[in-house]
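Database export, one record per block. Field names are fixed; values are copied verbatim from the stored entry.
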Amino acid sequence: MSANNLSELFSQRIFRIPDYQRGYAWGEKQLSELWDDIDEIPVIDGMLKKHYTGTIYLEETTPSQDEKWLSSFKFFNVVDGQQRLTTISILLFELLKVTKDGYGDEHKTDLITTYSVKANLSGESKVYKFSYSSTDKNYNFLLNTIFEDEKIILQNNSQNQYTKNLSVAKTFFRDKISLLNDAQKELLFKKITNSLLFDIRTIEKDLDVQAVFETMNNRGKPLSTLEKLKNRLIYLTEKLTNTEEDKTGLRKKINEAWGKIYLSLAQNPEHILDEDVFLSAHLSLYRKPKAPTFSEKLAEEKVFQMFCNKPEKYDLEEGVKEESVTYKKINQYIIELSKAAPIWYQIHNSKSKIIQKILILNSTKEVKIFLLSVLNQTSDANHPLFSNVEQLLFRNTIPNIGLMSDSTLATWARSIYNKEEIIDEIIQKTEGLINTSISVPNIINGFKHLFTYERGTKGFHRWGHLKYFLFEYEDFLKGKAKETNNKVTFADFEATSIEHIIPQHFSTNWHSEVGGFTDNFTDKDKLGQAQKVLLNTLGNLTILKNGKNSSLGNKSWKDKKERFRTGSYNEIDISKHDTWTSINISERGIEMLQFMQTKINGLTFTSDEMKKILFYDEYIIKVLNN
């Protein structure tokens, strides 16, 4: 092991980030810390103080065919330390870009050759001193956008979370450097190239590879369990008694598998998926946990029991011990784990309406591993089984029904994944639950309790899945109107809110509508309760997109009616009424409960039962009937 400054580090080495590594993960916090560290390096007696920056683990590799002309340099894969080297390479690029002549005694062209890119005599062939492997998905983006090489063609769909992070780093350093004068830029360059010290360690075949990845550098993000597992598997591969060619091939498979996983989880730059949540979800299918699924913490414990020097000490399941680590055990696990990653991405970014609906109803890990298990067997994102599950999950949202627990879905998921049951058998089980009889009195009592809270939201506004029900009712009204165009879709779910038609804090604009109902109450103690029930019953609630109702505020029914005419199908349906009184609210609520009956097999309400659900209080119902 030797300590080198950056000038020594780059002198005879070419660095490549192999494609199995995760992408660039640093954010503004780490960038700021590195910048502050460099900025605070003191000058003592005219000399810059040295600053230890961490260990860089390298593995010697061979150049690609179009790089072999650069024969005087050694090529290395960066096994650990890629976040720091990537960051410093971007910083140096931005610093060299703005110098006119160079720094110190070296000309700009010489510095670019040393730290950025070497060109052959014709200038047409280039080798970057630091880059990704040419097979890496982000290779073209790094060279074209970050290192500004216009001759590199930028591919379509090149954006992901890692490229976003690279762009953030480039902008961060560009902005910082723009505030410096020439003397400050030269001092910064000297600090980077001469003061920063790295311990360089080259991985040999006989090295205990497990030690390489135990920790990241102190300014980097901690290693995820997924990252540590990859390197545990590499370590265990080296200890196998198989032939060298078998071990080399298995190590390559591990690297390829992790490259596939990293790219899958980071495919959506706006929503990069957590590595350890994915690992724990897959492990919940691969091994049976005591709970319905593994937490991230328990998954880490379990997976390192599966893959340790003596896994036979641990239980596979009750009465059965884990197998020893073999080529077959590692190979099978990495194949199945890497196969699951694109499906996990698909689940979280699905364009399938039924999958979107399922995850809105229930986004627990149990539900997600069920989707993963089914999609692992069939590529049909609109499989009939999903429709059955959606029906069951919706039934579960109705107070006091509760036909199916999340643990049931987790059990079905493992049965499908491990081929203990086929999907058709699970369909039969779901159909059995769908046809289970339902107690209407229990439902009445369940909705009744929604009105009895002293504080906070009351009535149907307290029903956790009211918005989902209103979206379903939106589809029903669209079909009823024989329309084909959507006004609001499930893709708008987060941008949509539940709003009161008669406002909760109504003004005199609404006196006739509210008074027509409350004036019938001779018991003044019941008056306040009657108002709350009227405002929070099902028929007085609708979905509005992008905060539309806030602009309407306490405006009168006439004003709201006009605005609702051009809104969602829920709004259009409401706007057809000339008035908006307790009678209209009750009628709409009954129509909505009639629609609810179509969503749940065997559910039938009488008119009296509907009134009990909508207005719950016997005294209020009595006044309504009069």
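Remark 1: Residues 206-220 have pLDDT under 50 and may be disordered.
Remark 2: The chain has four domains: 2-221, 224-349, 357-436, 440-625.
End of record.
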